[in-house]
């Protein structure tokens, strides 16, 4: 991997991200302030994406194309899924937890697809595997994260499956959409390394595992 200078304010950015995810974990578990922290969820995702892009080192047109492609693909795939139920295996709808909606879809969801495909694509780019293998495994990593996300997202009113079990097709659909986007990610000519991806993936896992543990403790 090419060595790039550490971005300005590196320690400050990392500290803010860590504190934001810790605050979100705690705040969403405290009924008195949970509504406020729900309103801040979309802002936290946008801040995370902004930090990730601050660390990006290669702003050639191919990368800006990928930004637009991932955001729009993520949004319209979710729109198709909500309107038809076909993509992810059943009827679902977005709640109020992810902020304002356009055509019943929070626009932040497109940014989330960009964030996740970037992070997992960049992380697995460091391995000297064939591109098809990196693509498949990076997409599997996104599915693994979604396994952590789904139960928490339902409790936090990010989205709902209307009381039905989460369909297996949801995870298959996630994998297929991720494979499609990551195939383009790896095929486009820009540098993929980013110093922040390990921290962001770790914070996302920490956030959702933390919620699951706290929910179980409260039940117990």
UniProtKB/TrEMBL annotation:
InterPro entries: CruF-like. The keyword Ribosomal protein does not apply. It comes from Fibrella forsythiae. It comes from the Bacteria. PANTHER family: SLL0814 PROTEIN. Keywords: Membrane, Transmembrane, Transmembrane helix. The chain crosses the membrane at residues 12-30, 36-55, 62-82, 102-124, 131-152, 172-189, 196-215. Pfam families: Caroten_synth (PF04240). This is Carotenoid biosynthesis protein. The keyword Cell membrane does not apply.
């Amino acid at each position: 991997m090419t060595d790039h200078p550490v971005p300005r304010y590196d320690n400050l950015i990392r500290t803010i991200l860590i504190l934001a995810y810790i605050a979100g974990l705690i705040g969403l578990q405290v009924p008195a302030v949970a509504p406020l922290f729900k309103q801040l969820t979309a802002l936290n995702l946008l801040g995370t994406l902004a930090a990730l892009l601050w660390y990006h080192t290669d702003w050639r047109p191919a990368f800006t194309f990928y930004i637009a492609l991932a955001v729009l693909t993520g949004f319209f795939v979710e729109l198709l899924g909500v309107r038809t139920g076909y993509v992810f295996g059943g009827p679902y709808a977005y709640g109020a937890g992810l902020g304002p909606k356009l055509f019943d879809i929070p626009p932040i969801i497109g940014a989330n697809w960009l964030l996740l495909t970037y992070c997992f694509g960049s992380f697995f780019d460091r391995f000297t595997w064939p591109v098809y293998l990196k693509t498949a495994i990076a997409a599997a990593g996104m599915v693994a994260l979604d396994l952590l996300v789904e139960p928490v997202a339902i409790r936090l009113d990010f989205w709902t499956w209307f009381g039905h079990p989460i369909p297996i097709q949801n995870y298959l659909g996630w994998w297929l959409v991720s494979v499609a986007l990551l195939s383009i990610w790896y095929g486009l000519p820009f540098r993929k390394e980013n110093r922040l991806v390990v921290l962001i993936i770790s914070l996302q896992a920490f956030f959702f595992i933390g919620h699951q543990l706290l929910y179980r403790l409260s039940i117990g």
